[in-house]
Structures are given as structure tokens and as C-alpha cells.
């Protein structure tokens, strides 16, 4: 789910170790576009705090560019874009579903379950290799095998925005505290 195509999977095999060595995790990778101008889009974050600042994007972009230039795994020209997953991020790893428990999400499956492929509800954690989601109008929590999920994304809500604002405030306070200590 972090990549959609076989080519994405090959690029992830090449670039996961590069990102890890630079101190990041690739959340999602997509190689898009036709033969004329392709775009390699990489969403990443720091594993310890989930952050991805502009400086982080630059650092990871440089590390990836070096490897891509040497390995040349994409025929033709392409543009590399490295970004943060954003507030209404894609959920691509099992740990993402646990991390965002209590927030609304949209999930799409590769097969029918309960006569549908798309679900919307509040994430209720993870049980083994299954994602738990409380669906609107349902009393029972639904369990969906992670392997069946082809696309999942958080839904932008006030609660999610408040979480993002609180995390930014914590980061700014920590940065300010560190600057004060360095200035002494």
C-alpha cells in the first residue's frame, strides 16, 4: 500500500534503506505520469515523532537524488518531490491505524466485505493484522484485514486539526527551550 505498482515496490526496495540511513521512514511512494514527464512523489517522516519539516525534505531529497542518479532506476526524465504526509495523511502502515485511533478515516478494500469496498468511520485501533473501525450506524466494531486495504486516508476534522496544532505547539516550545539553553 505504500506503493501501488510493481515499479513503486522496486523503488521502495531501493530507497527504504536510503531513507532509514538519513533518519526517515517512507510513508508512501508513487511514480506518476507517462513517458514524457514523470513525477516521483515520496511522503516521509521521522520515525521518532512523525515530523517532516522543510529542512528534512531537503535532506532526504538530496540523499535520494544521489542514489537515484547512481542507480538510474527510472528511464527518462522525472521530477522528485519529497514532502510530509500532511494532516489528512494517507494511512499506509499498520502502525498508522494504531497511531490515529479515535480519528475518522476512509478505507478502500481490494474486495467486497459486507457487500462494499469503501468504509468510513472512526479508527478503533489494531488487533493483530486487522484494522478496527467503528462504522457510522453500526453497533459492532468492524475488523478489516490490513492486507485487503488498498487505500486509506484520514478525514480532515476539527479533532485532527487540533491534534496537528497541539503537536506543532509542542515542537515550537521544545525548539524555543533548546534555543534558550544553547544561548546560556
Automatic annotation (TrEMBL):
SUPFAM superfamilies: YhbC-like, C-terminal domain (SSF74942), YhbC-like, N-terminal domain (SSF75420). Residues 14-88 form the Ribosome maturation factor RimP N-terminal domain. Coiled coil: none annotated. Residues 91-157 form the Ribosome maturation factor RimP C-terminal domain. Its main location: cytoplasm. It is found in: Cytoplasm. Keywords: Cytoplasm, Ribosome biogenesis. Pfam families: DUF150_C, RimP_N. PANTHER family: RIBOSOME MATURATION FACTOR RIMP. Belongs to the RimP family. Required for maturation of 30S ribosomal subunits. This is Ribosome maturation factor RimP. It comes from Phenylobacterium terrae. The lineage of its organism: Bacteria, Pseudomonadati, Pseudomonadota, Alphaproteobacteria, Caulobacterales. The gene is rimP.
Amino acid at each position: 500500500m505504500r506503493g501501488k505498482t510493481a515499479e513503486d515496490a522496486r523503488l521502495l526496495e531501493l530507497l527504504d534503506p536510503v531513507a532509514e540511513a538519513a533518519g526517515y521512514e517512507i510513508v508512501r511512494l508513487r511514480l506518476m505520469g507517462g513517458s514524457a514527464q514523470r513525477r516521483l512523489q515520496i511522503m516521509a517522516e521521522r520515525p521518532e515523532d512523525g515530523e517532516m519539516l522543510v529542512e528534512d525534505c531537503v535532506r532526504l531529497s538530496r540523499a535520494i537524488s544521489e542514489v537515484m542518479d547512481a542507480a538510474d532506476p527510472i528511464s527518462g526524465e522525472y521530477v522528485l518531490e519529497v514532502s510530509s504526509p500532511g494532516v489528512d495523511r494517507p494511512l499506509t502502515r499498520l502502525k498508522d491505524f494504531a497511531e490515529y485511533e479515535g480519528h475518522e478515516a476512509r478505507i478502500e478494500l481490494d474486495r467486497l466485505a459486507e457487500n462494499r469496498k469503501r468504509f468510513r468511520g472512526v479508527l478503533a485501533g489494531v488487533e493483530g493484522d486487522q484494522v478496527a473501525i467503528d462504522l457510522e450506524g453500526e453497533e459492532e466494531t468492524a475488523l478489516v484485514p490490513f492486507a485487503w486495504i488498498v487505500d486509506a486516508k484520514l478525514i480532515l476534522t476539527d479533532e485532527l486539526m487540533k491534534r496537528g496544532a497541539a503537536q506543532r505547539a509542542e515542537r515550537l516550545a521544545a525548539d524555543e527551550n533548546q534555543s534558550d539553553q544553547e544561548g546560556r
